[in-house]
Amino acid sequence: MINSLGGRALCAAAAICAVVSAASPAAAGVPGTAAVDWSAAHGASVASGTRWTEPSGTGLGSALVVRGELRNSGTACSSVWVRWTYDFVPGPYHRHATQCGTGTAEVNVRLDPYRPTTTGQLTVCHGTADTRDCGPAVSLTSWPVNG
């Protein structure tokens, strides 16, 4: 029996974590998830591709892999930026691909390890320096529910 409020909170948090972990593909013995399409755009640029999970290189849990390309049909530079939120604490955006002028650039992002409490967003921005002029961010960590 748990007599302290702190003990109850810890017990409740452990139960929630157990439910979340059991829902992950790695916990179910599945090596990874099926690929899910993603797409983001801003101005004359579109980034698109697929994302999936696969076994982690650390041997624990899974890794999130995001692959695709940034296509720019304009003359200016455009960039793909990704931000991870760990345990409800958002980190800064980091640039992962840039295309200046007409052409394509590879988008190749890997988060290892990927945890159930980690979320991610991807956005396409004008320029290369910052995220002040960007299109809507898309989730990299929402997964379709298959019935």
Please write out the topology:
Elements: H1 5-23, E1 36-42, E2 45-55, E3 62-72, E4 77-86, E5 89-90, E6 94-100, E7 103-114, E8 118-126, E9 138-139
Antiparallel strand pairs: 1-2, 2-3, 3-7, 4-5, 4-6, 4-8, 8-9
Structural summary, described in words:
The strands form two sheets. Strands 4, 5, 6, 8 and 9 form a five-stranded antiparallel beta sheet that branches. The chain has two domains: 1-30; 31-139, Immunoglobulin-like (Sandwich), CATH 2.60.40. The termini are far apart. The longest helix has 19 residues, at 5-23. It is built from one helix and nine strands, in the order αβββββββββ. Mean pLDDT is 83; it is low at 1-30. With 147 residues, it is mainly beta. Strand 1 (36-42) and strand 2 (45-55) form a beta hairpin. This is Secreted protein. It comes from Streptomyces marokkonensis. Residues 1-28 form the signal peptide.
Give a quick rundown of the structure.
The chain is mainly β. The protein folds into 2 domains: about 1-30; about 30-140, Immunoglobulin-like (Sandwich), CATH 2.60.40.
